[in-house]
Amino acid sequence: MNRTANGPRRKPAARLTDGGNHALNFINSCKKDRKGGFIDLLTNYFSLNSWAEQSKLIDWNTSLVLEHEAKCNPPEAELCYAVARGARNTLDELFNDLVAGREVHPLITTRFNDQYNNMRQHLRYQPGTDGQIRQYFFDMEENLNLPLYLIIAQAAHLLDTGLWRQIKKCPACGSLFMDTSRAHNRTWCSPKTCGSIKKSQRYYRLRKVA
Ligand SMILES: [Zn+2]
Questions:
Q1: Cα(43) to centroid of ligand 1, in Å?
Q2: 130 CA distance to ligand 1 centroid (A)?
Q3: Using 50, 70 and 90 to split pLDDT, how confident is the model at 14?
Q4: Shortest CA distance to 29 belongs to which of 8, 49, 3?
Q5: How far apart are CA 105 and CA 173, in angstroms?
Q6: Distance 210 CA to ligand 1 centre (A)
Q7: Does domain 12-209 have CATH number 1.10.3300.10?
Q8: Residue ranges of the domains in the chain?
Q9: 32: how many CB neighbours lie within 10 A of its CB?
Q10: Mean pLDDT computed over 88-111
Q11: How far is the CA of 95 from the centre of ligand 1 (A)?
Q12: 3-state secondary structure (DSSP) of residue 102
């Protein structure tokens, strides 16, 4: 089945390691390459939207609606993308400081509070099908900021619950990930990528000495 309306499907998420949380995956969407430059997988609103769908932050129907909206409103899509990039820098600094045990700069907390307040304006308490009353995003189906607001909500959840203490930074690629292992002894973002690269480097070092 062809799931795209226009052209081949983009696959930015294929190069991403799952950090176990959408806010962390969002931060990891821009990382340093081996030459000291940056590889950014989100280069415009459309790649942001595609990433959000592929990393299961939003469903396919929502992503199609947002893609259509973005095509109808290019300046608005451009602005949403710029805001999302700024928010990613804020989240990057915030969580990297927390993980490293550094004091978070007041400017970063101010920026995060602004982003959180923007997101919160769109929440409403409503009864769900199970009779429970919870907060839901209200009237957001066609709002280009939906992926960003969902990310900010996840970041806030990490802070509110103290789950941020489970975040680790991969020593090979710098990605952030949740260490949910029972012994809390996970080192690499992925045993298949960074873990195996380091293992093979160790193997070749050992062979050289021998
Ligand atoms: Zn890694």
A1: 22
A2: 40
A3: very low
A4: 49
A5: 24
A6: 28
A7: yes
A8: 12-209
A9: 11
A10: 97
A11: 16
A12: coil
pLDDT of 191: 81
pLDDT exceeds cutoff 80 at 200: no
Mean pLDDT estimate for the chain: 87
Q: What gap in Å lies between CA 62 and CA 144, rounded to an integer? A: 10
Residue ranges with CB less than 5 Å from ion ligand 1: 170, 172-173, 175, 189, 194
Q: How many CA atoms lie within 13 A of 198 on its CB side?
A: 13
d(CA 20, CA 40): 19
pLDDT at residue 49 in the model: 97
Residues across the chain: 210
Q: How far is the CA of 185 from the centre of ligand 1 (A)?
A: 15
Q: How far apart are CA 80 and CA 95, in angstroms?
A: 22
pTM of the prediction? 0.84
